[in-house]
Amino acid sequence: MPTRILGIESSCDETAAAVVVDGRDILSSVVSSQLDIHRKYGGVVPELASRAHLRQIVPVVREALLQAGLDFADIDAVGVTQGPGLVGSLLVGVTYGKVLATELGKPLVPVNHLEGHVHAVFLEAHLGGKTPELPAICLIVSGGHTLLYHVEAAAGNGNAAMRGFQFRRLGGTRDDAAGEAYDKVARLLALGYPGGPIIDQIAGKVAASGAEFKEKDALSFGPVKIKGNPYDFSFSGIKTAVLYYVRAHPEFVAEIETRKKAFQEGLRKASELLPLCSPRTLSMIAKFQSAVVRDLVTRTLEAVEETGARTVLVSGGVAANSELRDRFALRASPKGVRVFFPSRALSTDNAAMIAAAAYPHLLAGHFAPDDLNAEPNLRLA
User: Fold this and answer.
1) Distance in angstroms (rounded) separating the CA atoms of residues 122 and 160
2) What gap in Å lies between CA 233 and CA 177, rounded to an integer?
């Protein structure tokens, strides 16, 4: 008999629910975004996020069941994100999941959000009829996380969806996550929120045009140097370099104010913002993205070489970045390394990955205790 798991995700600013069968087949996936709520603040406001989750969780879950063609009674288990994330946001999902599972008399399975991102890669691969080879190096990169793991299949029989994974942490960011750096630079330059997609779009258009800003004082970024663990990341320096460069050139002030006014008038697309960016700004945006992507790819492939893995898994919101995908393909393919990404819909926070991650834990009998609570700093390894 197929096992249908209702997944619930509320770790940050997206309320999501999904139904996944046997950890592999997505029957439905519904995501309610809070971008319009947080955009004017340039980042997620935790109190507003938790209130939005309270308003959305019931209709989102009902919509997920409706799209799957199921009733509550048809669900075999409930999987819910326990952490990491914002404590108020997590509590909404955990509390709702506990009440729902109790009322239905179904098992409740707590899930690590980061583990969910790994399963997102396998969900996408399954849709394409592929199975990533393990062991693998996994890069989880988003607004809240930049982490590097060595991933192996857990002991047991069956495919990875049934067995789950074992993780060994190789490194992580010492300061800002990559996505956080994108957001801060975008806020500094008045490019809007979230910063990742708009910077990626602008950088892509700059690259496609072949334009290059060649003034002698143009901003440039060297490789990030870190003492100690070679698989740790640091993006605070790159972000600060942009800040100091802007401060050193007063002509940016009027340009930034023009873009702020444009946002007030509703102009938010890359095509609308491009005419409001000077060549110096466009060059800075493209070079910022290139520096972040270079560091992510370089450290990940260095881990591949040291461990002997032949597979890279990339997940999290920044995995949707087009230059990151292109750079991995360019540098990994000649080495015989296969790189797997989720679709853009599965890269960002969603509940399908939570339901998929819950499946091997359900099979192993890893159910939530009665006193299950949110763990905002929950570690994967």
Assistant:
1) 8
2) 8
Per-residue pLDDT tens for 41-55? 888 999 999 999 999
Residues 120-170 have pLDDT tens digits of 999 999 988 999 999 999 999 998 899 999 999 887 766 766 778 999 999
State the amino acid at position 124 in one-letter form: E
CA distance 113 to 350: 10
304 vs 138: CA distance, rounded Å = 10
Which residue has 């023009």 as its token pair? 258
Classify residue 14 by its DSSP letter.
E
Shortest CA distance to 378 belongs to which of 114, 89, 176?
114
- pLDDT tens, 9-63? 999 999 999 999 999 999 999 999 998 899 888 889 999 999 999 999 999 999 9
Domains of the chain (ranges; CATH) run 4-172+343-363 (3.30.420.40), 178-309 (3.30.420.40)
Three-class secondary structure of residue 149 per DSSP:
strand
- Per-residue b or e along 104-140, where b marks 16 or more CB atoms closer than 10 Å to that residue's CB: bebbbbbbbbbbbbbbbbbbbbbeeeeebebbbbbbb
No. of H helices and E strands in the chain? Answer: 14, 10
Q: Say whether pLDDT at 280 is over 90.
A: no
